[in-house]
Structures
1.
Amino acid sequence: MSERHTPEPPGNGHKPSSLVPDLEKMEEGDLAEIRQYVQEDYWEHGKAKGLSGYDGAYINWWWVNRWMQCFAQVFPVRDKVILDLGCGYGSVVAGFQTWGADAYGIDISDYAVEKGKNLADYLAERLYQGSVHDLSRWGDETFDIIYSNQVFEHVPERYVTDVIAEAFRVLKPGGLCWFAFVTSTEENGVRGENDQDQSHINIHNMDWWRRRFFQAGFGERKDLDDALRNATTGYDHFSYFQEYGWDSIALEKPGDGGVSTDSRVTQIDPRKG
């Protein structure tokens, strides 16, 4: 894999929400600047203070259980080892646990991780603070499934290759990924005018992301992503994709074993792009 970057040491304390983050530093890969931004106000008062879409760090079991109903229709969750990249305070990790998985999460925000550990006892040993480009706490071929929902747009572009390479490394052969993004219609886009989250610093279209995943060796499982897009809850037929309009991709690491080896894996020439 490519040479791993070492994160800069984090700053101390929380940045007051009245201060504007240094976007240039964020975009250049200053992880300390990003970590300062995603502190208490980001999670607890994000909507009110124009920092994010969050309005409280808590496990919304109504949301989580309904999402797990949809996700588990498509991805085999029970008895699988799952990693949530950018787990926040662990809502989805908690959901995977209640659906019979052995789930873990990592997030750059120390506030979110510590808050999550206090929300449920069983999360205390399952949430870790750190950047998603460095998964060195886990060995090769550890996970059956890697999940990440609207996290990659927070990752400075200089770290994207490492994030993807690390995900590939810790995923078992035949293992699956599902990643959702904030995207643009442009190859190199910008944060939308209605997007108040200033840590959305890496906005691209899906073709840009596909090329990076294919270059790392992943194959696409469009059948799984399509099935998840059509999945609804059993009792009120609620669709998360219709509600949120996520752009997403399902991927598979080629090889025997893991969750799935399927002839429907598609690749492109990684030399393109």
2.
Amino acid sequence: MRFIFTLALTGLSLFMAAQTCTINNASADFCTTCSSGTNPALVNGVFTGTLRINTTYTISASCLATVTFANNVAIDIDKRNDLYFAADPYVQEGTTTTVTGHHVHGGLINAFGTNFTYSGPNTYDDLAAIMSPPAGSGGVGGVGGGGSSQLPVTLLSWDAIPTPAGIALSWSTASETDNDYYTVEHSIDGLTFSKLAIVPGSTNTSSVQDYTYHHLSPTAGFNYYRLCQHDIDGTINRFGVISAVAASTESRQTLSPNPAHPGQEIVVRGLDVQERSPVTLHHIDGRIIGSYPTAPDQSTRIQLPASVANGVYVIRHGRSSQLLVVR
């Protein structure tokens, strides 16, 4: 009976691995489309299986806040379509992710505040590596899909915001049990992390606690941060990876005008002629606003949306990035 039951489970696993969500329409809702059908890839907020993209598409931040990518995940980009994650996707620790495309030049995938392009024949190895967090890593991505309430610390928020003096890191907790301290870890590639700071915890509390740390010397471009919580008994719990961009002081890239006004046209000059990716405009937390092609004269023009709010934004091209002030 045990042998038969094992075979049944194996057959079920193979069946579940065939789950596929296909996006053919740019206006389709990811959470609705992928949870529909007789064998949906998205069940109870957990996505397992293949995501096939047949059009340039953006997965909304509101949907991503409710989704966890887990187990075996495959992302397949057809032709030269682009895929944008409007917020960092949460990927459960121990997940194996593959990312493939089907065009000689490939499409663009924007995730974790970074533009990913082909890293090999039909593959996006850099993104696949980030979205394959090993067991014990705490996973990668936003808090929304992380289900962190079962941990000794209930994490409410975990943010990284660029400032003129570096990158301001902050996090809040709803409750803490036997919490000794936190370590903040830093990475320049989202894969290899080193300890950046130690912040004392609040031991035992049921009230909201706020914590901050200012990284004064981030690397120009995108920086990745991981928060680790240390129990009194030595147990370590790792939360998801977040990213923020620090403007380059050596980039030849210039923006004009800067500051700018909502609805105004921005000219970006001094772009790297070897870089094939488009210029992208981001919110300060990495969410993409728009993508713009480069001109032969190494420049591009960006028409700011009239509805864009006053604040600080990021203009990115390849590994170069600049801060844009809108007021």
3.
Amino acid sequence: MAGAYILVSGGSEDHQISLSPGLPDEIHHTYYRYALLRIANINLARRVVKTLQREHGMSPDVCEDWRLFEVVPEKDLSDEDFVLARDLRNSKLTAKRPDWLGQCVELAKELQKHAQKHPDRDFDSLLESLGIPHDRITGKTESGSVILWGGQNQPIVNEKRKAKLGTTTYNLILGLVKAGKRGMDKNDIEEITPAARKTLRGLREDRDWRKVIKMPGKAGRKYRVI
């Protein structure tokens, strides 16, 4: 899973501080923005942010001293976010942050530790963010990289919705997902459809499917969805 940064942003006359000298001046004057923590698992980050926002967030519609927590996937960092992410590793800058920001950082770290002790809840958080009822799941990989919830619905691959699969293709992927690490050999997959290998090669033209569908490469090895 891709990593992400947890950011906090807000606005207050008392908190118009310049946390990141690399950001444009107008940003400092309108609101503050700060990177609290980098988390290697984006699902974990989403759960932490959900708790932070529920228990410690304040909407700009409610008060002037507002505070919003958000997850920004590492690959989606803007230029400004990149500066914040860089400053997160700068001890001189983090030492100057206000006490309340330091408390947010420590709180985020504690929530991360708690979430790591309950990995199943990360998957629940992902399902919630995608709007998929837990009881509709028909198959998923151990890592959660592939989620199937019926042939009539779009499969989820690396947290992205993909085109619906035809019945035969869906049954092939479901079989591989259920096989897990032990995989399936050529005879196994061709019992589902004689065109199994061609079907898998076609799916692998998509970058995300290519990452999760593993072809044997040599005789005697197995086909897997990881």
